Amino acid sequence: MPSRFESIPNRRAIVDRRLLADALAALDGADRGALRRQATALLKQALVEGRAEVERRMLAHPSRGLEAAGAQAYLVDQLLRALYDFTVARLHPLPNPTAAERLTLIAVGGYGRGEMAPYSDVDIGFLTPWKQTPWAEGVIESMLYALWDLGLKIGHSSRSLDEMVRQAKADVTVRTALLEARHVVGDTGLYEEAARRFKAEVQADTARQFVADKLAERNARHVKMGDTRYVVEPNVKEGKGGMRDLHALFWIGKYAYDVQRAAQLVERGLFTPQEYRRFHRADNFLLAVRCHLHAVAGRAEDRLTFDLQREIAGRMRFSDRPGKSKVERFMQFYFLQTKIVGDLTGVFLAHLDETFAGRGRRFGLPTIRRRPTRLHGFVLDRGRLALPRDDFFSEDPARLIELFALADKHGLEIHPLAMRAAARDVKLADDIRTDPRANALFLDVLASPRDPELVLRWMNETGVFGRFVPDFGRVVAQMQFDMYHHYTVDEHTIRAIGLLSQIERGLLDGDHPLAAALVRQIVSRRALYVALLCHDIAKGRGGDHSVLGAAVACRLGPRLGLTPAETETVSWLVRHHLLMSATAFKRDLSDFKTILDFCEIVQSPERLRLLMLLTIVDIRAVGPNVWNGWKRQLLATLYEAAEEVLRLGHKQKGRSERVAVKQEQLRGALGWDDAAFAAHVRRLAEPYWVAEPDDVLAHNARLMARAADMPLAIDAQVYAERGATLVTIYAADHPGLFYRIAGAIHLAGGNIIDARIHTTRDGMAIDNFLVQDPVGRPFDDTQQLGRLRRGIEDALANRGKLADRLTARPLSRSRAEAFDIQPNVLIDNRASNRFTVVEVNARDRPALLNQLAHALFQSKVTIHSAHVATYGERAVDVFYLTDLTGDRIVNPGRLKTLERKLLAAAAGEPEEVAA
After folding, report:
1. Which terminal residue of the chain has fewer beta carbons within 10 Å of its beta carbon, N or C?
2. Residue 459 phi, psi dihedral angles, 5° rounding
3. Strand, helix or coil at 733?
4. Separation of alpha carbons 611 and 577, rounded Å
5. How far apart (Å, rounded) are the C-alpha atoms in residues 659 and 690?
C-alpha cells in the first residue's frame, strides 16, 4: 500500500479490491470482447459506488480537500490494478514472458501526486523496456478501451525507456509530468529502472533551466488568466494564487532539492514550519473547493463561477453574517488562501535566487534600478532593499512603513526575505498607527508621483497595509457578489489609485484627454488619493458604504496628517463618489434641472474636478471593458454643463437663448434656404432642440428632408464618438411605437443604451436610439445594420408576431440567474420641472426594455426619453414621462397603478413579452 493513501480512513468502504478481483475472476466465457464488456460493467459499478462514498465523505467533512482528492486517486488506483490483473490473466495471458515482454503502468501529473478531483483526467503512462511487443500493444489497447467505456477521461502515453528519456529532455511538460510519476501496477523492476534513468539522464544538472522554464510558464499562465489573483470568478486550478502555483513550488522543490513530499521543504530550509502549515492549509482548502466544484458541476470544472459559488459556500458550511452573505465570506476566505500562495511564492523565489542566480541575474522578479549604497539603516543586496539584521523592525516599528516608502522613493525592489520579515512582524504596525512619522511616510507612498500602485500592492501582500489601516484590512480579499465588479475591493482600490497615477504622469492622455487636463488643475491632490483609498473602504458593513466610508475618512484624514479642509473634501468625495455616474447614466442631461440639482450638491469647481477624476478611475478599475466611449461622452457632457453653471452662476444662457444658438448653428450646417429652414423649425417643439446635440439635429434634419412624405424612414450609422450606433426612425406617430422598436432592436441583437422620443407638430415621430452589440461595441457590420433595419420595418408593419419571436429568442445572459434581484420602481416628480422621472431596477434579461415600454404603453403615458444602464446582472432603466396631455403625472392613484404595472413587467409577470 503506497504510504500516500495510508491516512485515508476505511479505504475498503471506497472500493474493496479483493472482492472486485474475486468478482472479475468468476466471470466465465472464452470470447475476449464479451469478457471485457462484463469486466467493464463490474468496474463501472465499483467506480459509481466509490465516487458516491467519496462524495458522502466530502459532504460530511467538506473542508478535507487532501483526503477527498486522495480518496479519489485511491479509487482509480484500485480499479486500474484490478483491470490490469484481469487483462494480463484473462484477455492476454502470457505463460512464458521474455525480457522484452515486460510492462509497467505509472500514474503521472496530479494523479501521480495522488490528488484527483471527481472528474479529473486520469493521466497514465505505459512503459516498456524496448520497442513494444504485440503482447504489450494488446494489453494497452484492451485497457484503454475498458477505461474509455468506464467514462473516464484518460491522458495516456506509451513509451520505451529510451523514448521516455528522449522526450523528457526535449519537452518540459513531459518532464514535469514524469517528475511526479508513481508506480501503480506492473513490473516494479522496470519502474525502478525508469526512475533511475530519469534522475540520472534527465534531471541531473538541469535544475536551473527547469526552474526558469517553470517560472516562465507560470508568468504566461497568469497573463492569460488576468494576472491577478483577485478576479471574482477565479480559476481554482490555473488562476494566479491557485493550485497550479502551489504545484509549481512543489515541482521546483522536487526537481532542484530532491524532496518527495511537501513537508520536506521545511527540512531543506525552503519554508519555516509555520510557512509549511500555511502551504498545507491553502493546498487542503483549494483542493476541497476543486472537489466540490467537480461534484456540483457533474464534470471537470475549474472556474468558480457565480452560480457555483453560492452552492459551494453552502456545501462548505459558510453562513451569513451581518453585512456579509455566506458566499462573500466564502470567497473572502478563498482569496486569503490565494494571497498565502502568493506570499509563499515570494519566499520560495528568494531561496531560488540565493541558490541559482549568479552575478545579479534573478528569478521571478523584474529588475527596476539598483543603488549600491545603504539607505536609512537598510542595506542593499544586489540592488534590492534588505534588512541588516532579523530584529530590525522590532527595534523601530515605523521601519515597516519606511521600507515601502524608500522602495518607492528610490525605485528599488524589496528583497523577498525583507518581505517575509515584514509579514512576520506585521503586528508591530498596531503600535505605530498614531505615529506621525509612520503616517507621513504612508501618505508619501499613497500619493506618490511615481508608481504608488506597485508599492501599495507589495504593502498589501505582506499584510502591512491592512494592519496599518484596519478599515482597509476589513476589505482585503473581499469580493462583491455581482457580475459588475471584476475584482475584490482591495484590488479594485489599488487599481484605481494606479490609474489616477497613470493619468497624472501623462500615460493615459490619449484615453482621457479631459482628465489629463483636469489633473493639472486640481489643488487638493492629496485629498483625491486619500478619497480613492476610502471610497469603497466601508463595503460589507451592512449599510450605505458611501455614508459609512465618509465617517471613516473623517477619522483617517487627521491621522494621516491632512488639514481639516482636506479631510472635509475627502469625506465629501467619499460620501458622493457615485453621484456623478448616477446622474450621467441615469438622468436626462438635456433637462436643465438635472444639472442644477447636481450643482447644488457639488457647489465648487474644485470639487467638480476631483469628482470627475475619481469617477473615471473608479469605473475603469471595475474591470476590463466596463469603460467605453458612451460613458466618456455622458460624463464629459455633465462635467461641461455643470462647470458652466458653477463658473457663471446665474449668468449662463437661458433655455430660449440656447435653443436659438442651436438653430442658428444648424442653419449654417445645412445651408438650406430661409423658407425651408423656417418650415423645419416650425415642425419641432422647443424640448427637441434642447434635448439633441448639434450633430444629431443636423442628421435628423437631413433624414426628414429625404423622407419627405414617406410613411417610414430608418437610418443607422456608427456614432464613433459615443461608441455606439445611432438608429433614427422617422415614422407616423402612433401609440406603442417605442415598445415595438425596442423589441425589434433586441431581436436584431442590439442593446439600447439611450433613447430620445420626439413628436413633430404634424404628427410624425422622430426617435433617436443609441444601440450597442451585446459586448458594448457599436453595430458596425453591414449585415447587422441590414438586419436592424428589416427588423424595425417588420415590427412597425406588424409583419410576424413580435411576441412570438421575442419568446423564441434564447436567453443570452443566464449567468444573471445566479443573483436574486428584487424589482424596484422609483417615481420622482422633483427631479424634473416638466417630466415625471421613473427609475426601474431589475435583473437584466433579454427584451426587458420592450416589456417595460409595453407596460408604459398600457398605462397611457408618453415616453419622452429613456436611459438604460447595466451594472453586471442589474439593469437600471430610467424613463422621462408625461401624461397624454403633456403634463407631469401627479395623481396618486395613477402613480400607484403605473408602479404596479412596471413591477410586474420588471419581474416578467403575466405579460411576459409585449406583442
Report:
1. N
2. -60, -35
3. coil
4. 7
5. 6
β-pair type (861-871, 751-759): antiparallel
pLDDT-wise least confident of 81-90, 142-151, 165-174, 477-486: 477-486
**pTM for the whole structure:** 0.81
CA-to-CA distance for 193 and 197, rounded, in angstroms? Answer: 6
Confidence at residue 367, expressed as pLDDT on a 0 to 100 scale: 44
Residue 480 sits at the vertex; the CA angle it makes with 474 and 482, to the nearest 5 degrees, is 175
Please state, in angstroms and rounded to a whole number, the distance separating the CA atoms of residues 263 and 273.
9
SS (H, E, C) 661-719: HHHHHHHHHHCCCHHHHHHHHHHCCHHHHHHCCHHHHHHHHHHHHHHCCCCEEEEEEEE
Average pLDDT of the segment spanning 731-759: 85
Strands (E), 140-288: 154-160, 182-186
State mean pLDDT over 722-744.
87
Contact criterion met (CB below 8 Å) for 650 and 790? no
DSSP 131: S
Looking at residue 483, its pLDDT comes to 65
Q: Which amino acid is at 181?
A: A
Beta bridge partners of 155: 123
Determine the Cα–Cα distance for residues 463 and 391; give it in Å rounded to an integer.
18
Of 562, 560, 524, give the one whose Cα is nearest residue 440: 560
Rounded to 5°, angle at Cα 390 from 384 and 393 = 80
Identity of the highest mean pLDDT range in 549-563, 671-685, 696-710, 898-912: 549-563
How far is it, in rounded angstroms, from Cα 592 to Cα 365? Answer: 54
Burial of 790 (0-12, 13-18, 19+ CB in 10 A): middle
Would you state the cell numbers that stand for residue 896, as one nine-digit string? 400607484
Cβ neighbours for 618, distance < 8 A, ≥ 6 positions apart = 496, 532, 535, 577, 581
The x, y and z cell numbers of residue 404, run together, are: 515601502
In 682-700, which positions are buried (b, 16+ CB within 10 angstroms) versus exposed (e)?
eebeebbbbbbeeebbbbb
The three cell numbers of residue 13 are 468502504
Model confidence over 275-300: pLDDT tens digits?
899 999 999 999 999 999 999 999 99
CB distance 617 to 500 below 8 Å: yes
Q: Give every strand in the sheet of 379-381, ordered side by side.
A: 379-381, 384-386, 413-414
Q: Residue ranges of the alpha helices (H) in 97-160?
A: 109-113, 134-149
Q: What is the DSSP annotation of 406-429?
A: HHHHHT-EE-HHHHHHHHHTGGGG
Q: Which residue has the cell 504612508?
A: 442
Which amino acid does the sequence have at 697?
L
**Residue length of the chain:** 915
Q: Do 525 and 606 meet the contact criterion of CB atoms below 8 Å apart?
A: no
Contact predicate 868/752, CB 8 Å: yes
d(CA 819, CA 807) in angstroms, rounded, equals: 22
Residue bearing cell 434581484: 821
Residues 6+ apart with CB under 8 A from 790: none
Count each helix (H run) and each strand (E run) in the chain, helices first. Answer: 39, 15
- CB 708 within 8 Å of CB 731: no
632-670 b/e with 16+ CB inside 10 Å = b?
bbbbbebbebbbebbeeeeeeeeeeebbeebbeebbeeb
pLDDT, one tens digit per residue, over 15-43 is 999 999 999 999 988 888 899 999 999 99
What is the distance between the alpha carbons of residues 754 and 688, in angstroms, rounded to a whole number?
15
Does residue 1 carry a pLDDT above 60? no
d(CA 793, CA 790) in angstroms, rounded, equals 5
